[in-house]
Amino acid sequence: MNKIEHIGIAVKNLTNSIDIYQKLLNTDCYKTELVESEAVNTAFFKTGDNKIELLAATSPDSAIAKFIEKKGEGIHHIAFAVDDILEEMERLRNEGFVLLNDQPKKGADNKMICFVHPKETNGVLIEICQEIKWI
Question: Where is the VOC domain (predicted)?
């Protein structure tokens, strides 16, 4: 794992939360994106080398909606950048971690993603992500 790629924060209202984080971070949201496969709308902020991803559910049965219902708004996951997501998934499996995805899937912000089960990581949902490189 190369670095923390972003921290994901679950929010109830994306529009209100974008306003809050623009004021808090003193920077504009640089991108919003619908990720239909996850039933989530996202918004991204960059401050220095760090990124924050806000996640708002688009469906009451989405993972984000269920997370907020159970735990309330707040930190949802920590994402780590990797060079080769398939290789990293194999390494994690060999180390005994349970992955929530059998194969990487398309995520927001031009990334292929995979999640590690939080029961394996002291209750923290970990995402690994690799930038999609276009030829």
Answer: 3-131
Q: For residues 24 and 85, give the distance between their C-alpha atoms in angstroms, rounded to a whole number.
A: 33
Q: Is the pTM of this model over 0.90?
A: yes
DSSP symbols for 76-108:
EEEEEE-S-HHHHHHHHHHTTPPBS-SS-EE-S
Q: What is the mean pLDDT of residues 112-122?
A: 95
Q: What is the pLDDT of residue 13?
A: 97
Residues 6+ apart with CB under 8 A from 58: 34, 36, 39, 40, 41
d(CA 32, CA 66): 21
Burial 28-44 (b: 16+ CB within 10 A, else e): ebeeeeebeebbbbbbb
pLDDT grade, residue 133 (50/70/90)? confident
